[in-house]
Amino acid sequence: MQGFFVLVFLIFSQYVQGQSQVEWIQFQDLQSEIDETPQAVFIFFHADWCVYCKKMELAAFKKAPVINLLNQNFINVKMHAESTDEILFDGQVFKNREVNNRRQSYHEIPLILAERHQDNMTLPLSVILDKNFKIIRRYFRYLSPQEMEKELKEVISVLNDK
Amino acid sequence: MIHKINFRHKIYMLLSFMMLGVTMQAQSQTAEMKGQVVNEKGDPIPFVNIYSADEKVGTSSGIDGYYELKLSAGEHRLTISSQGFRSHKLNVTLKEQEILTKNMTLIEDVLGLDEIVVTATRNRVQRRKTPVVVSTVSPRLLTATQSISMAEGLNYSPGLRVETNCQNCGFTQVRLNGLDGGYTQILMNSRPVFSSLLGVYGLEQIPTTIIDRVEVVRSGGSALFGSNAIAGTVNVITKDPVLNTWEIGSNLSYIDGKSFDRVLNFNTSNVADDLKSGVTFFGSYRDRQAYDADGDGFTEMVKLKNNTLGSKAFLKPNDYSRLSLNLNVIHEFRRGGDRLELAPQFTDITEQLEHDTFIGGLDYEINSKDFTQQVTLYTSVSHTDRGSFYGGLGGGRTAQDSILAANAFGNTKDLAWNNGVQYTKHFENEDILTAGAEFNHSATEDEIKGYNRLIDQTVNSFGSYVQYEWKATDKLTALVGTRFDRIDVEGEYRVGNVERDVDITQNAISPRLTLSYDVNEAIKLRGGYARGFRAPQAFNEDLHVSSVGGEPQFVILSENLETEYSDAYTASFNFSKTKQKQQFDLLVEGFYTQLNDPFTMVSKGASLPNGSILEEVENGEGAAVYGANVEFKYSPSTKYSFQIGGTFQKSKYEEAQLLYEAQTGTTERDIYVDEFVRNPDIYGFFTASWMPSDLFNLDITGTYTGEMTVPRVINSNGFLNLNKVNSFMDVNLKIESHMHFNDSFMITFSGGVKNIFNSYQDDFDQGPERDADYIYGPAMPRTYFIGIKFGKLH
């Protein structure tokens, strides 16, 4: 009997502490998610060769405060920047136009979201958009758990002010 | 009409809005530029940035490639850029109210040639853009050739050959563009801590697991890196950690079906989540049995036991500075000769060496807030304690032979201490100024009491350098630099009854000039001149005692040895192109190096009292080495890659050079040469790799060594024959297969054959009176190997 309560307690404490990982979805599923519940979106772009992306996945995205802030306030999308999938979004099809022409071939979606005046596409790339799909913040660099937590808190308070 | 504003338009509008905001702040824009941006095939390129640096306004081309940019009248410097395409700079002049239509074509960026390298100008620069040619030996290449130590991997760079010079001790030399080991400076992380002694055996002691890449600059290194670097520099750059990883590996080789070579290594890294601090530990253990090629009881490859332990840590106190510490210890035991199971003094020949080396370094880098200025301070030290035995009964069995053998133990202490400071400034017009100063101290004490042999040498050198990289035009870059060195050598050299002293202070100025010109996007021409010098001192090969004709052979500096100077000229043509997924790179480089008063070893025969052979380092006849390096790389896709390189060269002494001076009272005559020995006229390498997936790859690699002349001692007087030896082609095959269990664990199996055709020297000298220096060609016979590596993320 006691064992049973301990088990129940453990299961509940898991929920009380928060989930143990970020609830990522694919970009393909983003349209239906925001159609259902318009919400701010956090997109993380990565690639196989991007060592700092891997570091973020093992550091920032594994820490409880960051996980909770992300899961509770955003729809979280993780996308491989060199994906060759054809993705339907907002009535248009986006694909990887460079895949047959170049070795480092980026998909149109990260290219569009990464547009800058003078600099080229770099990874890791984290993009935060509000519920109207307007870009609020973009980070073209590695973010440590502390930095990520601080940035997320600031963005969330800006979003809530609106 | 319902106008659907979709996601892409939203972004476009957002960006345009941002830009509009910017343009409204600028001066009144009365002129306009517009047009379409296309690629080489004529397809429109969307989202191309067109930006004016003068007015800080810009725009982006639309989905159809069309753009419109409002500018004020006057001159503008525009930058046109887009991911994957080469940045384009354009100057336009607009009149009031002018609407200029300008269509533009952007060219694909060349890939895979964007490695960042450090060596050419001592600053981090993209390899393709360096004014001086830098070749890199990448970790992939070191793995492809199953190079256990750096020495093996270096064969796969144009103009470079690594050769074993001694069967009894396995001492290796790097030969760059035809010049031997003493002309190349070996650096570790851009610091010259390879002291003379470490240079003798050091190449084999660096395990490849810690090497991030090796950068080779052929000729012209002297202005930035010090006096030795006449042929060039080999810069070993070790790895910087990012992820937390661990790896354990083991490799077993079976040499010619006779001897085993076992290696066990590990490395592990831990980096803080904020990337502000990190540490790597690595270590390796190697145990190689001796190898006797011709069954005469005397080794052709030495018994080798090596333990290396190292660590590298970094700390970033803030965003602008970085502190780095590295510590390495190496313990090595080598033994060659005969009857290795006996104590050295009871054998006919033994060369036994035991090294204890410590290398440590600390550097501190600080940047200005805008990262345009940087100051680096560094200090490194390497200390080696060496116990040696060079000797043996030499075939004799008298009491005198025994006493001499028992006294052939020696002791060496070697210290190298290197400190410096460097300042770099990046100007707005892309020019770069680099200036620095260095102070090096090295002290070597090598004593073998039994032979009355002593080398007690201290070298203090102070160097300062300045270099300016001038971007004269878009296409032309000039690199002008000079170095001022003051070298102070104080040494006492003794062997047998010969005693020499050197006390010399030398000032030298080494200028350097390099020009590089971009004919077009694909073709780059480079040309340059560099001056180098070597102050008289005992170099690594002088500390080595050979055994020839049953006698020990010593090296001593001659009296009144003068500084050697060299002038090096290079010119090269580089063609790089990427067409869709194919990559193509061709380098043709010509070199001409003129040596004045080069240090040359002249054998004086058995002129020491107990019959030992003496070689003197003298200033030889002027000489020139000239030739061409060609390197061709082709990769049709990410699955295949081919590389082939070759060097064609000639070396010539102005006057015939004396190699052996016959003693009076013998019937022997003097021996002269008019070209360098141990230098093939043609040599090269190739690599071919097939990488069908992440899980499997196959590599075929090989080197070609052309015919050359190798001297061979044929009697106990040290008298020589000049042998013309045949060419070699050694081909290696390696297969690798990876298994991913999960993100944290992966296993790699590898196996293959080195020197498949067993292209190996077949005329070794035999017996206790052999010439142990008569060794040339590929470093090992046919060798089978298997390996396994496991760990997290490699």
TrEMBL record, chain A:
Name of the protein described by the UniProt record: Thioredoxin-related protein
Species whose genome carries this gene: Psychroflexus halocasei
Pfam families linked: Thioredoxin_7 (PF13899)
Signal peptide: none
The Thioredoxin domain, residue ranges: 1-157
Classification via InterPro entries: Thioredoxin-like_sf (IPR036249), Thioredoxin_domain (IPR013766)
From TrEMBL, chain B:
Name of the protein this chain belongs to: Outer membrane receptor for ferrienterochelin and colicins
SUPFAM superfamilies xref list: Carboxypeptidase regulatory domain-like, Porins
GO molecular function: siderophore uptake transmembrane transporter activity
Compartments where found: Cell outer membrane
All copies of domain TonB-dependent receptor plug, residue ranges: 127-233
The keyword Cell inner membrane belongs to this UniProt entry's keyword annotation: no
Domain TonB-dependent receptor-like beta-barrel: 315-756
Membrane topology: Multi-pass membrane protein
Organism expressing this protein natively: Psychroflexus halocasei
Signal peptide range: 1-28
Alphabetically ordered keywords of this record: Cell outer membrane, Membrane, Receptor, Signal, TonB box, Transmembrane, Transmembrane beta strand, Transport
Family stated for the protein in its record: Belongs to the TonB-dependent receptor family.
Pfam families given in the database record: CarbopepD_reg_2, Plug, TonB_dep_Rec_b-barrel
One GO CC term, this protein: cell outer membrane
Annotated InterPro entries: Beta-barrel_TonB, Beta-barrel_TonB_sf, CarboxyPept-like_regulatory, Plug_dom, Plug_dom_sf, TonB-dep_rcpt-like
GO terms classed as biological process: siderophore transmembrane transport
